[in-house]
Amino acid sequence: MENVTRRDFVRNSMAAGAAVATAATSAGAAQGAASSEGTIKILAISCSPRQGKSTATALGVCLQAAKGVSPKIETELIELAGLKINGSVAAGIPLAEGEQDDFPKLVPKLADPHVQGIILGTPVYFGNMSSLCRAFLERCIVLYQDKSVLRNKVAGVVAVGGTRNGGQEVTIQSVQISLFCYEMIVVGNGRPSPRHGAIAWSGAEGGVLKDEFGIGTVKGLGRRVAEVALRVAGMS
């Protein structure tokens, strides 16, 4: 078997990803123009390994706030729970024979030109993002070469911790570093209490929805992403 360096692998992966993304973009543009003229979409991606739990719940609130900004906004929640995403592929390590890889099915959604905003949500594990979030961000390298895929899309981050001050802001900043690398327009939650992003607490009595302060930042982030996305799209 021919030896392939990490640089060669990444270059080939990026080229392949760009081809997939370009095809998805063309198809998405045609479909979007036909069915959703005058609207944009904001995606929320839950990077929790537990489906339908606190991170997904917080993102649902975030999307509702985003949708409330304008009738021009459509939203969709994507949960990575249950999906197999191997981050090592981004380092040039091939999948094992027969190993499942679910990342390619996400590419058309990410590449859809109708999508102008992406909100990434992660639980806080040991003061940082989940391994699923890290793997997802690393695999997005296939979208990097085609600058039209993620470049200038608006991005925000929701971090959900088990304690009130459980590393949410550190986690948000860690995720944001990757988003900056993809040339995204990264925003915080804005007024009335500007922060790096949304900081939710799953340990509140009654669950994350009972964390009044945290949910306030979640709603603020949704509104902020929506406002900036509309402005970037020239629709504000």
Give a verbal description of the structure.
This protein has helices at 6-35, 54-67, 107-111, 131-139, 168-181, 212-232, and strands at residues 40-46, 73-79, 115-123, 154-161, 185-186, 198-201. It has 236 residues and is of the alpha/beta class. It has one domain: Flavodoxin domain (Rossmann fold, 3-Layer(aba) Sandwich), CATH 3.40.50. Strand 4, helix 5 (168-181) and strand 5 form a beta-alpha-beta unit.
Indicate the topology.
Blueprint: H1 6-35, E1 40-46, H2 54-67, E2 73-79, H3 107-111, E3 115-123, H4 131-139, E4 154-161, H5 168-181, E5 185-186, E6 198-201, H6 212-232
Helix pairs in contact: 2-6
The total count of strands amounts to 6
How much helical structure, as a percent, in the residues? 25-40%
Low-confidence stretches: 23-35
Quick check: average pLDDT?
88
Beta-strand percent range? 15-25%
Q: What is the CATH architecture descriptor? A: 3-Layer(aba) Sandwich
